[in-house]
């Protein structure tokens, strides 16, 4: 029987009734002083990475405009697209947690810029992400589950093109600009914040209106190549990495080791992704800044599953499970724990018969 992942469904109410909602998550046994040290924020690493990110975008845009409409501009715009349509996803995420910079207003400025690029209303998505961390992959409670069971593999594949996601984001922007929330958003956005949701959307509509007007006046899509279109064609990297966060793992559990995955990645992907490949570590200790996640990984590795050694290796393990879920919805990956690790909670026993 298919699950209903809508936040307005009975599944969410059932999760509350069964005590699965807002669970007490498992935490590895570590020295609290070590965690407090890793939670210390600094402006230096985030300033460096932000200046490289925005500086590279300015340079690539300048070169892309200078080379337009030559074919030599194609690789330049492709690189610009990844920084616009994928790197903005991780910047939105980290600054939304307010952990990237020590200085609060720096987090807020980058958060607003990145939210605009990725077309995620900063008020709605901050509330959404709080719920995601509170009820990670709890059916009917988590608004950020990217693939349901059985998985729609066509829809998942189309995410790499960015078209469907962008259309949905534009629809939500129009909805918010008209002074309305989606029914699911109304379940986690505070009443006091709704006015800000609507005004942000209206400002964005005006900005996009100017960009479209500039494109029409110039008789060229070049203005949209700088603002807007990279959200579509540059989304592939954040989809490539983001799908690995939770897909193929358990639903409705209270141990992040069963529903969240860490994948070791190359330095370029880690820069674009801001170390969110250490995703298990991030969910366990949300307030640790992204630049300290590799250290956190080493600190708790005795108590968590071994990380997938690469993006390719992670997909080699994931794809057969997604294929099997088309016929056998309960198929799931149950990661093996290292010897001596704290055992999974008793809830793992109902997963083992379906482990792939």
UniProtKB/TrEMBL annotation:
Residues annotated as domain Fatty acid desaturase? 69-312
Give the source's domain of life in one word. Answer: Bacteria
GO terms, molecular function: oxidoreductase activity, acting on paired donors, with oxidation of a pair of donors resulting in the reduction of molecular oxygen to two molecules of water
A Pfam family this chain is assigned to: FA_desaturase
Write the protein's name. Answer: Fatty acid desaturase
Question: What InterPro entries has UniProt attached to this entry?
Answer: FA_desaturase_dom (IPR005804), Fatty_acid_desaturase (IPR012171), Rhizopine-oxygenase-like (IPR039393)
Q: Does the keyword Transmembrane helix apply?
A: yes
For the keyword Hydrolase, the answer is no
Could you tell me the Gene Ontology terms of the biological process aspect for this record?
A: lipid biosynthetic process
Q: Which GO terms describe its cellular component?
A: membrane
Coiled-coil ranges from the UniProt annotation: none
The record's listing under PANTHER family reads: DELTA(5) FATTY ACID DESATURASE C-RELATED, FATTY ACID DESATURASE 2
Its transmembrane ranges are 51-74, 203-227
Enumerate the CDD domains for this protein. Rhizopine-oxygenase-like
UniProt keywords, alphabetically: Membrane, Transmembrane, Transmembrane helix
